[in-house]
Amino acid sequence: MHDMRRYRSLSAVVFAIVVSALVGGFFGRSALAVDDKVPEHYKTFSAALNAIETTYVDKVESDRLVYGAVRGMLGTLDPHSSFFDPREYAQMRERQEGRYYGLGITIVAIDGDITAQGVFEGSPAFKKGVRQGDVIARIAGEDAKGWTTEQAMRKLRGPKGTNIEISIKRRGYDQPIPIEVTRDEVYIPTVPAYFMIDATTGYIRMQDFGENTDRDVKHALHDLASKGMRRLLFDIRGNPGGPLDQAIKVANEFLPRGKMIVYTRGRVANSDQDYRATEDSEFTDIPIVILTNRNSASASEIVTGALQDHDRAYVVGETTFGKALVQSVYRISGGAGLALTTAHYYTPSGRLIQRPWDATFDEYLTYTLRDQDADRPHNPSDLKHTDAGRPVYSGGGIEPDKRIAGPNEGFNPSRVGRM
Predict the structure, then answer these.
(1) What is the mean pLDDT of residues 218-237?
(2) The pTM is what?
(3) Closest CA to 207 of 299, 343, 122
(4) pLDDT value at position 183?
(5) Under a CB-based contact definition with an 8 Å cutoff, are residues 233 and 221 in contact?
(6) 3-class SS at 290?
(7) What is the DSSP string of 169-206?
(8) Domains of the chain by range and CATH?
(9) Which side of the chain, N or C, has fewer Cβ within a 10 Å radius?
(10) Backbone region of residue 314 per phi and psi (left: phi > 0; alpha: psi in -120 to 50; beta: other values)
(11) Based on the number of CB atoms within 10 Å of its own CB, is 102 exposed (0-12), middle (13-18) or buried (19 or more)?
(12) HEC per residue, 21-35
């Protein structure tokens, strides 16, 4: 049997996470247990852990037990507090940083086929001719039929400079196409497209948030302005959100200095923050139309809510997802990570646009797969007003000023991955 002192320490870490995380600050700080002693009211957990270690019929890994316990605790809180094992944490950081080593494709498992949902321009896969819609039939000599997205991701990712052989099936071709791709660093663009629609209308597509999204948006704005842009179509459909600071910086591009962008409120003092525009911008008067859908969430809702509340943008599309929970992400022992909800965020008018959730989270997480209720009732307390006096509502996403229904093809994060 392993040294039980290790497991007592691990269990102390598990239950000390919440306290130490809340006082630890924002992204990148460590949540550490300050004492190896197990508090009295944690003895149930320690006893269960000891019983499993000593008497369970099969040998089990201690990490698996502790990780499962952490996930179980977080599962009693809300749909967005989550635990990352070391591999998941590394992948999450790659997404936040906007770079990783791989082929440069986004895959999704559809009816048992690993399908290229997207291919990043300039990536190793793009250079080898892989295109959106290709089915990856074989990976490293193995038949990929029936694989999950996670299985395919594990095979396709690897160290920089290493090669991997794949075979793709493409409509119009009788035989699979064999391709050898060299893994390399891949830049994930958060602003994959911007251009002039006509002589005065610019278009920016912001598909995600990463650590440099504000830089990408600023570059697009200045480039379009040099080409004569006098009004902007800002497309954030399907944008799942990202770092709070990036949402604030993007909104700052369109708001005068001093305007409220978002404020957060939580249990502890450092979670109560007011975020205002702090920099001057050239684009505080340009007319804006924001395109949203049910998959626009979190940070993208912060941008939308701020511009709508200050009457800086006209919102067109569907009601957004409705996520107003702020997660602080912490690296904990062993390279694992924890995303813990530490605050609610509110739009400048005072809207809390978080949707309610059911006990199992099932209805909440499948929201994007169902038809939207355009005439859902509001409580009187939900009513807020924009700077110009227009009515807006709390309690379930950012409602558009002009509703245009879209296809209910919900984003399922468990089925999509990047390589």
Answers:
(1) 98
(2) 0.71
(3) 299
(4) 92
(5) no
(6) strand
(7) E-TT-SS-EEEEEE-EEEE--SS-EEEESSSSEEEEE-
(8) 4-74 (no CATH), 99-187 (2.30.42.10), 193-329+342-410 (3.90.226.10)
(9) N
(10) beta
(11) buried
(12) HHCCCCCCCECCCCC
Do residues 367 and 374 make contact, with C-beta atoms less than 8 angstroms apart?
Answer: no
Cβ pair 316, 237 in contact under 8 A: no
pLDDT tens for 90-131 read 877 776 676 667 898 888 888 889 998 778 778 899 999 999
Contact predicate 334/86, CB 8 Å: yes
Cα 71 to Cα 80, 154, 338: the distances in Å are 11, 22, 10
Helices (H), 56-171: 62-74, 86-97, 124-127, 149-156
Distance CA 148, CA 153 (A): 9
34 pLDDT band (50/70/90 cuts)?
Answer: very low
Lookup result for tokens 């700052």: 252
Nearest to 104, CA basis, from 176, 189, 170: 189
Average pLDDT over the chain reads 84
**Residue 287 DSSP label:** -
d(CA 17, CA 70): 9
**pLDDT tens digits along 287-327:** 999 999 988 999 999 999 999 999 999 999 999 999 999 88
In sign, the C-alpha dihedral spanning 160, 161, 165, 169 is positive
Q: Report, as residue numbers or ranges, the catalytic residues.
A: 298, 309, 323
pLDDT, one tens digit per residue, over 276-295 is 999 999 999 999 999 999 88
- Provide the pLDDT for residue 311: 98
Distance, in Å, from the CA atom of 33 to the CA atom of 84, rounded to the nearest integer, reads 18
